[in-house]
Every structure is written in C-alpha cells, then in structure tokens.
Amino acid sequence: MTDLSPRHLLPAEPDRADARRVLGRRRKAMIVGFVVLLVIAAGAATVAGLRNATLFFRNADEAIAERVELGDRRFRLQGRVVPASVAVDTGVTTFEVIHNCASVSVRHSVDPPDLFESPWIPVVLEGRWVQGDVVTVAGRDTHFFSSDNMLVKHTNEYVAANEDRVPDPNEPPEGFLDDCPFEVPRL
Amino acid sequence: MTGSVATRVLGAIGLAAAAVMAILALWVSPADAVQGDAVRLMYVHVPSIWVAYGSFVLTAFASARVLWRTRSGAGGTEGVIADRQARHWDRVAGAAAELGVMFTGLTLVTGSLWGKVTWGTYWQWDARLTTTVLLFVTHLGYLALRRLPAESRARARRSAVMALIAVVNLPIVHYSVDWWRTLHQEASLEIGIGGDRNYSGEMYWTLLYSWATFTLIALWIGIHRYRVLRLEELAEEAALEELLSVRRSEPSHDEPVTER
To answer: How do residues B118-156 score in pLDDT, each as one tens digit?
Structure first.
C-alpha cells in the first residue's frame, strides 16, 4: 500500500511561511524568466536553421549567376524541363531546365520519377557544375549540371484530367517565357 | 461507458459521412491532369492538417484558460469553482492535443506516401516538412508531460505552459511555404472569404466535404477522449479516497510529524 506520509501536518510558523512564500515567488519568477529565455533561444535557433533551408534550391538563373562561388560544390537546382530537350542515352537523361529565361543543360544519371514525363514540370536536381561546352536554347554555355538525384516539384494547381482537352506539350505555362529573348524548339 | 445518445448519433453521422467521402474522393472527383489518381490522397492529407491546426489552437486556448483559472489560490466557493473550471479546460486541452497529434501523424504519413508518388521521395528536410515534424514532436512532448506524476494543479499549469510554447510553431508551419523555398508546394487555398483557390470544381467541393467529415469524426473522438480523461480523474480520486480511509482506520501515533 502506498505510504501517505506525513500522517499529521502541523501548521507552519507565520514568519517561516511568509519567507517561504517570498522565496517561492522569486523562484517562480526565475523559472518563468528561464523559460522565456529558452523560448527566445529556441526561436532564434529555429529561424537561423530555417534560413539555411531558405536555399533548399537555387533557381537556374541564380545558379548561373553564382557559378564561380559554387565551384564544384553540390547544390540543388530548380527549373522547368523543356519538353523538346529531353533525350535518353545509355542510362543518362539529358535535358534543359529554364527559370527566369536562364537555361541550364543537365545530365542526369539516375532514373527520373514518373512525373518527369509531364511537359514543363518543375524539377529540383541535386548535383554540381561540370565544365564542358554545351548549347542551350539560350545560347552557348561553358558548363552543364551533372545531377544524380531528381525531385519533381509539382505546382499548387489542381486541374481535372480531361481526355477531350489534352494540353499541347509544346505550350509552356502562361507567361513563363514571355520576356525571354529566345525561342524554344517544338517536339 | 463514455457513450451517450448524442455521441452515438454523432458517431453514426460521422461514419455515414466518411462512406460518402470515400465515394466522392475515389470515384466522383476526377484525377489530376499531372498527378493522376495520386491526387486523391489530398482528401485525407489536407483535411488532416486542417483538423490538427484546429485541435492545437483549441489546446492553446484551453491551456490559457487553465493558467487563468489557477492563477490565484482563492479559497471557499470561488476557489472550488475555479478549480472545477481549470480541470475542465485541462481535460479539453488534453483531448484536443491527442487529436492534433493523431491528425498530424496522419498528415505526415499520407504526405510521405504522396511525396513518393509525385516528388519521387518519401522525405526531404525542407522548411514545411521540418516545421511540421517539430509541431508533431512538441505536442507529443506535451502529452508526455501530462503523464508525468505530479500534483494535478501543478501538472495542469506546467502542461499549459508547454502547450502555449508549442503552438507558436503553428503559423510558422502554415506560412513556411511562403517564407522559404520548399519542395512542398505553396498553399492552394487562401485563408479568408474570396481568397484564391487552385482547384477544379469537383476537387474543391470534395476537399471541403472531406474537411467537414474529418471535423465530425474529430469531434466524436474528442468528446469520448474528454470523458475518458474525466473517468481517469474519478478513478484516481476513488483510489486516493480508499487509501485515506485505510489510513484513517489505522491506530493513531503518539508523535505527530511536524513541518520542517
């Protein structure tokens, strides 16, 4: 059976009780202050940590602009796949991704996810810059992106599939290439 | 034991609504032009996190009430009323947090499966996914804190503070897709009347219907959990009473214990 001691509790002396109350209040204030500090510290650490996650990926135009700083470091690259640029040869998928009218040539060495086949799908690729002359829809380039991991970044738009209204795969999303000084080849 | 006519009716309505939801989600609602049938996971994934958000907000509100009602040690009738209200809000907070954790767990599982089909991976540590896990873990911690042995008032106050800390992450989870670059897509529905929505008609209405169904089911489970928590309290009180009566029946001692 659980012990329920003390059996008889005598009232505390008034001055000792007062002192205990004051000490209790001080201790409570210290605990509250400590918790507040802890929350602020945790919040600051979380925000700092998430700031790193801010750059979960670099868009194609940013990756080109930061090419020198990036060197041969691994990073994630984001852009929409140009449907007419996709080609598969001995397990390597080559294609171009565009963002803000900047085009990057990609050599991807692993099987892409199923949704990669959707025209103009946005993808996030993990890999690094590799030196090599390539020609993209935007012109000649001195580097291509060597990737070994692909994530499909689907949009937040949900449209019912309609067999009578199959979209033209050559048509980019509305406004996507409006300001670009180049033409994209058709399938 | 925790059932009543009202909860039985509510349960029956919830069950029927879930059956209709399954028909709408699996057959009536169309496949997505890009994702195909995988989009049907949305009817579980999105309502789950909406219900979890609501549950965590309720936990925080009830926890604030607990702190408010236990802020002073008023005696007499006022003290008894305050204590009863604090216990009530503590049970509300506990039941709502259990729901929130359950539905966040469901969100994480369905999101992971959906991610594998669409993104090509079960998991990525992007800002949305990371903050959602944090929301799940902190509320799991809250539930653990509630189970630690302590005097009921102290335990209620301690857990209430934890709930108010944990809920700070909720807006961060929701707006993470706007504040940071994430693999997770941005919100497809804007909060508020007249906000933008990026769904075809049947998808939109099926999603709203699913949310209503999940809310009904959550309400039903929540009421039962509240009553179970009340029964646990009664059982504890009965056990204590029994111990006290055993002690009272013992012979008295010559040397009383004095307070040190």
So the answer is: 999 999 989 999 999 999 999 999 999 998 888 889 999
Which residues of chain A neighbour B199 with C-beta distances below 8 Å?
158
Q: How confident is the model at residue A36 (pLDDT cuts 50, 70, 90)?
A: confident
Note the pLDDT of residue B257: 56
Query: For chains A and B, what is the number of CB pairs under 8 angstroms?
Result: 123
Residue A43 has pLDDT above 90, yes or no: no
pLDDT of A10 above 60: no
Contact A157 B198 (CB under 8 A): yes
- pTM equals 0.83
What residue spans define the domains of chain B?
5-248
Burial A36-54 (b: 16+ CB within 10 A, else e): eeeeeeeeeebeeebeebe
Contact of B46 with B132, CB cutoff 8 Å: no
* CA distances in angstroms from A140 to A87, A185, B131, listed in the order given: 19, 15, 41
Provide the pLDDT for residue B237. Answer: 87
CATH superfamily of A58-152: Nucleic acid-binding proteins (2.40.50.140)
Contact B185 A154 (CB under 8 A): yes
Cα separation of A167 and A119, whole Å? 9
pLDDT tens digits along B4-60? 999 999 999 999 999 999 999 999 999 998 899 999 999 999 999 999 999 999 999
* CB contact (8 A) between residue B182 and residue A151: no
